[in-house]
Amino acid sequence: MSEPRGQFSSKIGFLMAASGSAVGLGNIWGFPTQAASNGGGAFVLAYLVLAFLLAYPALMAELVIGRHARANIVTALDQLGERPLTKRLGRAVGYYGVLIAGLILSFYAIVAGWMLAEFGKPVAHLIGWSGAEQWLGGDSLVRNLLVCGIFTAFTVAIIAKGVEDGIEAWSTRLMPLLFIILLGLILYVLVQPGATDGLKTYLIPDFRQLADPGLLLSAMGQAFFSLSLGVGTMLIYGSYLRKDDSLPRMGAAVTLLDISIAFTAGLLILPAMYVAQHQGIAIYGDNGELLAGPGLIFQVLPSLFANMGGAGTWLSVAFFALMSIAALTSSISMLEAPVSVVTERTRLKRSGAAWSIGAVIFVISALIIANMSTLFDATVSLTTEYSQPLLGIALCLFVGWIMHRNQLLNELKAGHQDIEHSLFWKIWPFYVRIICPLLILLAFIQTLR
To answer: Which of 215, 219, 278, 316 is packed most tightly, with the most Cβ within 10 A?
Structure first.
């Protein structure tokens, strides 16, 4: 007999958990640097529009399936199918989504471990532990395995405590802390010389660039992937919602929170990059493009903090605490996807499932660490560039073509009685059935070029 299912105890608990899932490392550094590399303010404007034209409808698909089935992604998609073929297809999509979530977490935990090491380095400096500071600043196999293992253990410990005591409790603690640290860093950076240039790049759009298909596709991809769509994390969170919660409103709130924090992160990252440039630190790579990803996080910003003296040490502590928290809130949802499948489809208890799956994911992480040059980029490409778009299309097709229209309506009416007379009901079913799959497919094809 499987364990009783958990449930979010409040709307705010769901919102903190869902927005925590969406706001991860990619959102903190990915969105701002994407904006800087794709037209600045024009990219921001396109992103804000496409987040509601594309990402919100796709998010709603996952929430509707999850709460309708009250089950993990495998069982949920299996239940939607009425024929053997659609049932088998549903299970296949579900298991593949769980596999991809696990693989994403395996490389995500490595990067998150680096964040923990970067957080520990200035802390060691402050307490005068020079040996630990030097070791944490290195790039040894042992260091990478240790910090990855610590981060994975944090994630597993939270998931093992369940929905209300684990996911909800920690999300409601971590997300406000993340936002406070983010705002504090922004206020400090904005008064530094050079910050104004970063703000101009970020906020002033060149409207002519909105006609660039490449910019629009980049904004579309960022809007879709920033909400953790495609691998069933939002589906399983939707399954823990109460029946009297309005799905359209909850989905809109999650989307607003996600884009708000992504936008706010841009107010830190872009000005910080130009502050670094003002201090003589290179923010452009050899190819002339703005540095992003690891080049930004582990080269530009640490150099900036080092130039700020004593204040820079505290800023480094705060910044990498911010990054570690963002990583943890996202990793929680990624681990919940496979754990929910195991606990609901087997007799294994949640704690045993969480630690067993966590161990498997750590082994995969260790293999990647031992073969970084060949496995890391390949795993990232397989999961985020190829698998997530295809899974996103599949989930839209399931809710648009396999789930009956009256099932959709009844599920939405459970928390929103007059939904059938709303603009949402007149537009969304068609959107998720036709427009979303086509747009996601278009973005996917663009990444193959």
So the answer is: 219
Q: Are 43 and 259 in contact (CB under 8 A)?
A: no
Nearest to 435 by CA among 129, 54, 69: 54
Least confident span in 52-66, 84-98, 275-289: 275-289
One-letter amino acid identity for 298? F
Percent of the chain clearing pLDDT 90 (strictly above): 53
What distance in Å separates the CA atoms of residue 376 and residue 154, rounded to the nearest whole number?
Answer: 22
Tell me the one-letter amino acid at 204.
I
- Identity of residue 243: K
114: nearest Cα among 334, 313, 295? 295
Residue-wise pLDDT for 95-122, tens only, equals: 999 999 999 999 999 999 999 999 999 9
Q: Cα–Cα–Cα angle for 82, 87, 93, nearest 5°?
A: 140
Partners of 284 in the β-ladder: 290
Strands (E), 89-132: none
How many other C-beta atoms are found inside a 10 Å radius of the C-beta of residue 16? 25
Residues 6 or more apart whose CB falls under 8 angstroms from that of 243 comprise 67, 414, 415
Domain boundaries, the chain: 11-448
Q: Which fold has domain 11-448?
A: Hydantoin permease (1.10.4160)
Cα–Cα dist 430/432, whole Å: 6
d(CA 203, CA 218): 17
Instruction: Determine phi and psi for 204, rounding to 5 degrees.
Output: -95, 110
pLDDT in tens, 240-281: 999 889 999 999 998 888 888 888 988 998 898 889 889 988
